[in-house]
Design brief:
alpha+beta, 9 helices, 15% strand
Length: 270
């Protein structure tokens, strides 16, 4: 690598050394004797094992597992785009449920085998039912329900299912109070006068990662406000355009594509 045209950065060069020292510290402080990781970490783990053996004359171990990748080649990892977290403060139960529900048909069988506690026969039955009508996304729903219940509990799963029905259809008229996730409170003052810029609201509620992506999505016809397609990147949201639910709560329902949604709940200024 040093002699190659691309070379090697100091960060990458020193990574194995730092991880080896980390293994030693964990061993000294907490008695750690096993380090686990993806198969791409094998060299770093071996470096740590060698370091502990050399410094402490102790035997420690490494365990790696194959990297989990999607059909498109993307891996699960904290540095990847669209990272999903187990902590509800980082990824809400609703977004966690949606992550699994959006699994590609090519991946859902593998993910069921990786993550589900179901037996092989049941997984094969789920796959067969899914193959008969993929539009129902039965395999994805089975995966999403099991994973959400496992990580966040049955109550959080039930709420995620209700929120999904409300935001994605099939749950009757929208009632903002029923939405535990996907709701962002916004002061009514922001929408008075000329109103709030749609680009800012899309970014602020987390529906897009940047204004550039917001513009691109609008120009591509992928952004909807209260189920109406938006074509003007300068669009502003005014208070008199807000929808009202059965409880009298005013809101804007924002959607990107078919699946990603947020609701801006308008609260009164104090």
């Amino acid at each position: 690598r040093v002699q190659s045209e691309q070379g090697i950065s100091y960060t990458e060069f020193s990574y194995s050394i730092l991880q080896a020292v980390d293994f030693l510290e964990l061993h000294d402080r907490h008695g750690v004797t096993l380090q686990c990781g993806g198969s791409d970490q094998w060299g770093n783990i071996v470096a740590g094992s060698d370091f502990v053996r050399a410094k402490r004359r102790k035997k420690v171990h490494g365990l790696t597992v194959p990297l989990i990748k999607s059909a498109s080649g993307e891996k699960f990892g904290k540095t990847e785009a669209g990272t999903v977290w187990l902590d509800a403060a980082r990824t809400s139960p609703y977004d966690f449920f949606q992550f699994w529900l959006r699994t590609d048909d090519r991946d859902v069988g593998s993910y069921l085998r990786y993550f589900s506690a179901r037996g092989a026969e049941e997984i094969e039955r789920i796959e067969a039912e899914h193959a008969s009508d993929p539009s129902k996304r039965g395999a994805q729903r089975a995966l999403a329900e099991e994973m959400t219940a496992l990580v966040h509990g049955e109550d959080a799963l039930a709420q995620a299912v209700r929120t999904t029905a409300q935001l994605h259809g099939g749950g009757g008229a929208l009632r903002v109070a029923d939405l535990a996730d996907g709701v962002v409170d916004r002061d009514a003052a922001a929408f008075e006068g000329e109103g709030a810029g749609l680009l800012d609201e899309l970014l602020g509620c987390g529906l897009v990662p940047s204004k550039k992506e917001a513009r691109r999505s609008i120009e591509g016809g992928g952004i909807y406000v209260n189920d109406e397609k938006v074509s003007d990147v300068q669009r502003r949201l005014r208070l008199d355009e807000a929808s009202t639910d059965e409880d009298g709560v005013r809101y804007f329902a924002l959607r990107k594509g078919k699946k990603s949604r947020r609701v801006l709940r308008i609260t009164e200024s104090r």
